[in-house]
Write a structure and sequence with these properties.
- The chain is α/β, with parallel strands linked by helices and 436 residues long.
- It has two domains: 251 residues, FAD/NAD(P)-binding domain (3-Layer(bba) Sandwich); 138 residues, FAD/NAD(P)-binding domain, CATH 3.50.50.
- 32% of the residues lie in helices and 23% in strands.
- The protein contains 14 helices and 20 strands.
- The strands form five sheets. Strands 1, 5, 6, 7 and 20 form a five-stranded mixed sheet that branches. A five-stranded parallel sheet has the order 4-3-2-8-19, covered by helices on one side.
- The chain is globular and about 70 Å long.
- The protein binds flavin-adenine dinucleotide (FAD).
- One of its GO terms (molecular function) is monooxygenase activity.
- Pfam families: Lys_Orn_oxgnase.
- It comes from Isoalcanivorax pacificus W11-5.
- InterPro entries: FAD/NAD-bd_sf, Lys/Orn_oxygenase.
């Protein structure tokens, strides 16, 4: 079986940025044989949240390359140039393209690396390949839509799988009920509903705000926005605060002691979590203000409320909701419930579970490499799940371009030694596929 230098799990922005960095790094330091495995059938960036009026929350200059290599041909500006839209974009006078356009930019970058990516396969485990007492290689197992299991061997691994939907415990039993869905499936699931009239949106972040406005603009809908907080607080993107998303700040966070890191995260939480853009907040406020003018009760802002219990039957999804100030509760029946309740970033632990004896709790060094026990030779890197050690920029686009350069550097050190040992160890061919 062929042995790759590197396998990347997921082909979202993080690993596309890495594919670009490897290509550009390879021009000076030698080619790395990299293969990426992506669950979706083709590239798409949060496709179920590509809402018509949604915009980027970050400058287009923080694309997949510019902060690392402003002269890269994979920049957003070169994308515009190649699409013959550069002049028009300049006339837009914005740093914040639509999410549709940024998705198109990302798809354009991904298209240059399609030959390196296996689309339509979901990785479900990574196994150790032993050489004596040492782990010499990793065996990456994935499953395609037909159930067929694919196996690949690699000397190093980069996990960039993004977040998994965070489902509040009260909704855990309703995962198969199509009337209750997470924001990450919003457009697809809404499209499957039979003209829903009464809907609840749970959450107070950017996605909750966008979904509320999207639903409120649809004819005949009545939407309850249910949130534990009293007020929507805007994302703080003022210039000094924005410096926490500079690459140097990653050093600042990483070099702090664990307790101080947690305090830093807490202090700037409002840059990214439960913090929609001010413009969106103003639009939502206007929706409720217009209702006051007309005396309508069509949409409700259920501030300081929490879902206590959920019961689903043929009539709909019944939410018992408690007022956190008074303790009173009431029940409402909905045709659909959207959980804009954020993401968890633990998927890497499940994928790496068979390697736990060597990788322990998956703690990473500054270069995002998982610290391994003696005798574990492959290099394993994590992208997008190192927020506790590397700061709030970790899950965003902000430091992505620079992070990939750091991973490339670390790979350069890790690979020659690993590949020399592995090629000696793996003279025997092994079956490339097993039926799942
Ligand atoms: C709606 C929305 C809007 C956002 N807007 C912004 C913004 O404006 N600015 C910003 O900085 N950040 C934004 N973000 C944050 C977002 O996390 C980053 O923009 C970016 O998507 C992170 O890239 P990633 O590759 O790490 O993760 P993802 O984009 O989540 O990509 C991960 C990829 O891995 C694949 N995958 C997952 N599991 C497996 C598996 N087991 N096997 C194979 N493939 C797998 C997924 O299908 C996906 O394609 C937004 C997030 C959301 C949800």
């Amino acid at each position: 079986m062929h042995i790759h230098d590197l396998i990347g799990i997921g082909f979202g922005p993080s690993n596309i940025a890495l594919a670009i960095a490897l290509e550009e790094h390879g021009q000076r330091h030698g080619k790395v044989d990299a293969c990426f495995i992506e669950r979706q059938g083709g590239f798409a960036w949060h496709p179920d949240m590509l809402l018509d009026h949604a915009h980027m929350q970050i400058s287009f200059l923080k694309d997949l390359v510019t902060p690392r290599n402003p002269s890269s041909r994979y920049s957003f500006l070169n994308y515009l140039h190649e699409k013959s839209r550069l002049q028009d974009f300049i006339n837009l006078k914005t740093f914040f393209p639509s999410r549709h356009e940024f998705n198109d930019y990302l798809a354009w970058t991904a298209s240059h690396f399609e030959h390196q990516c296996a689309f339509g396969e979901s990785v479900f485990e990574v196994l150790p390949e032993m050489q004596g007492k040492d782990v010499s290689l990793l065996r990456v197992r994935s499953r395609d839509a037909s159930g067929q299991v694919h196996e690949r061997l690699t000397r190093s691994l980069v996990i960039g799988v993004g977040g998994a939907p965070n489902i509040p415990p009260s909704f855990a039993g309703l995962q198969d009920d199509t009337r209750v869905f997470h924001s990450s499936r919003y457009l697809s699931e809404l499209g499957r509903q039979q003209a829903p009239r009464r809907l609840a949106v749970i959450g107070a972040g950017q996605s909750a705000a966008e979904i509320f406005l999207d639903l409120a603009q649809r004819d005949g809908t009545e939407v309850d926005l249910i949130t534990r907080c009293w007020a929507f607080k805007p994302s703080d993107d003022s210039p000094f605060v924005n410096e926490i998303f500079n690459p140097e700040y990653t050093d600042y966070v990483f070099n702090n002691a664990t307790g101080q890191r947690a305090a830093l995260l807490e202090e700037y939480m409002n840059t990214n979590y439960a913090a929609p853009d001010l413009e969106l907040i103003q639009q939502i406020f206007e929706v409720f203000y217009r209702q006051k003018v007309t005396g309508s009760q069509r949409h409700r802002f259920r501030r300081r409320h929490e879902v206590e219990a959920v019961v689903a039957d043929d009539a709909g999804v019944h939410l018992r909701v408690a007022n956190l100030d008074t303790g009173d509760s009431d029940s409402t029946c909905y045709d659909g419930v959207v959980l804009a309740t954020g993401y968890q970033r633990q998927v890497h632990r499940d994928l790496l579970a068979p390697l736990q004896p060597w990788l322990g709790e998956c703690s990473v060094n500054r270069h995002y490499q998982v610290q391994a026990a003696e005798g574990f030779r492959p290099a394993v890197f994590l992208q997008g799940c190192c927020e506790p050690t590397h700061g709030l920029s970790d899950t965003l686009l902000s430091v992505m371009a620079v992070r990939t350069a750091e991973i490339c550097q670390a790979l350069q050190h890790a690979l020659p030694r690993a590949s020399a040992r592995a090629s000696a160890a793996h003279a025997e061919p092994v079956a490339a596929m097993a039926q799942g």
